[in-house]
Amino acid sequence: MTDSKLAIVVLAAGQGTRMKSSTPKLLHQLAGIPIIGHVLATARTLDAAHVVTVVRHERDRLAEVISADLPESIIVDQDEIPGTGRAVEQAVAALPADFNGDVLVINGDVPLLDAPTLANQIASHRAGTAAATILSCFPSDATGYGRIVRTADGHLDRIVEHKDATEDERAIGEINAGVYLFGLAHLRAHLAALSTDNAQGEKYITDVIGHLRQTGESVNALPVADSWVVEGINDRAQLSDAAAKLNSLLVRGWQLAGVTVQDPATTWIDVKARLAEDVTLLPGTQIRGATVIERGATVGPDTTLLDCEVGEGARVNRTDATLAVFGAGASIGPFAYVRPGTELGAHGKIGTFVETKNAKIGEGTKLAHFNYVGDAEVGTGTNIGAGVITANYDGVNKHRTTIGSHSRVGTNTVFVAPVRMGDGAYTGAGTVVRKDVPAGSLAITVAPQRNIEGWVTTNRPGTDAARAAEESGK
Ligand code: UD1
Ligand code: MG
Predict the structure, then answer these.
(1) Active-site hit among 57, 162, 369, 406
(2) How far apart are alpha carbons 307 and 32 in whole angstroms?
């Protein structure tokens, strides 16, 4: 049910300079979705009356993701005044005039923050009388974070940013997590007074905490036990740390749901993937995007699947596949390169050193060794011999090849598309198919073989080959 007393503000306007990237920080990927996507997904679960997201740097790219992930969010453009305090000030101004509740401010760079942690923060705040309740933690390395300064009797007094802190303050291990719940009136009362008189020349939202305390209000800081839940991502080292942590949680979740993961350290599973019971993932496997794997399938080792569907009991071994569908009991690899638009029927095979693209391959059909099949449709129960390829590109346009059911395509056949081969047809080894092959016929294009006797002895005298030929003739 919608929490009519809750508004959420997500801060996403920062430049993310420490990433040193042309991609905005919050669009860097974590388990297959952008950093901001994780925060928006968590925000959505709280079902707040209003959500405001503040953007500025690369605003269009951010706004596109926000509109797709959380369409109900109001998007506010931060002006040229920098800082998290200014971002919140502008967000609050965008809230409907009749709203009068709590404002949950979340830094957009805290992707592992989860809904239970926020629900606990909200419940704790509402059970007391504090003007604000914020989250804190004790990370192994507090460098860069704002520190929580407490009074001698343990009450939160203010937050000091790392760049503004004294040596003594930098020795404080408790940091501000960047997740704040304010009573709206308390927040409003102090936003306008924020100054940019600090090391970074920015309006800090963290200064509101000190101002509240100076006016006699109480503010609570709730320490979060697992600091990774609230650690912010500012550089690429923190990004990979967060990715590894999230992955270990996802892998464990799937293990408890009945998936065998032999080597969690080298197995990567994106948040959108779905795995059935009795799936086995072997070392070095990446299950990316919205990949779905059905019961009893085995994937890996050393396999990457992006947005694929793997049928029940299928076997995918040392394969790179994108946007492909594999039927039940199908066999893929080792060393297959499966490109978008590949559909392999049940019990079909895409074997060793085989590349496919935009190809519908019927049930029980086998491409066992060294094939390229692209822009093609192959019926059921057909055998494609080693080295067969579809020559789909004439240098200007791509053309289709159609091969019927229960056909036998001889080794090294080349289909020069557009061309069709009927049901139950054969081609001889090395055939170059330029004309349609009717059902039930055999196509052959080979020139008759000529043997020139004694050629090696005459033309390559004194070689090992010549000697071997002479020996064999004795
Ligand atoms: C901030 C806190 C710090 C805290 C840390 C927790 C401030 C002043 N400091 O520091 O106390 O320990 O988070 O991770 O708030 N943003 C805007 N507009 C801006 C600047 C930033 O919307 O003008 C957004 C960013 O996109 C980001 C978030 O606010 O999502 C935090 O900004 P960031 O620069 O990462 O702040 P920190 O230095 O990490
Ligand atoms: Mg940060």
Answers:
(1) 369
(2) 11
Report residue 193 CA to chain centroid gap: 42
Q: Tell me the per-residue pLDDT of 210-265, one tens digit each, with 9 for 90 and over.
A: 999 999 999 999 999 999 999 999 999 999 999 999 999 999 999 999 999 999 99
What is d(CA 296, CA 294) in angstroms, rounded to the nearest whole number?
7
Interatomic CA distance for residues 384 and 342, integer angstroms: 16
Asked, colleague to colleague, whether 3-230 and 236-443 share their fold, the answer is no
Residue-wise pLDDT tens digits, 195-213:
999 999 999 999 999 999 9
The two structure tokens encoding residue 435:
């004309």
The number of the ligand 1 atom at minimal distance from the alpha carbon of 55 is: 22
Considering every ligand atom, which ligand is closest to the CA of 57?
1
Q: Which ligand is nearest to the CA of 15?
A: 1
Catalytic-residue membership of 38 = no
**DSSP codes, 208-252:** HHHHHHHTT--EEEEE-SSGGGT----SHHHHHHHHHHHHHHHHH
What is the fold, at CATH topology level, of the domain defined by 3-230?
Spore Coat Polysaccharide Biosynthesis Protein SpsA; Chain A (3.90.550)
Q: Find out whether the beta carbon of 109 lies less than 6 Å from any atom of ligand 1.
A: yes
Asked if residue 474 has pLDDT above 90, the reply is: no
Torsion of the alpha carbons at 14, 18, 20 and 23, rounded to the nearest 10: -30
Q: Where are the domains positioned within the chain?
A: 3-230, 236-443
Task: DSSP letter for 392, please.
Answer: -
Q: What is the pTM of this model?
A: 0.94
Residue 146 CA to ligand 1 centre (angstroms): 9
Using CA atoms, how far residue 158 sits from 133, 137, 150, in Å, is 13, 15, 7
* DSSP character at residue 285: E
Q: Answer yes or no: is the C-beta of 234 below 6 A from any ligand 1 atom.
A: yes
The confidence score (pLDDT) of residue 201 equals 96
> CATH homologous superfamily of domain 236-443?
Hexapeptide repeat proteins (2.160.10.10)
Angle at the Cα of 289 from the Cα atoms of 285 and 295, rounded to 5 degrees = 65
Mean pLDDT, the chain, rounded, equals 97
User: What is the Cα–Cα distance from 385 to 369, expressed in whole angstroms?
Assistant: 7
Round to whole Å and give the CA distance between 322 and 305.
Answer: 6
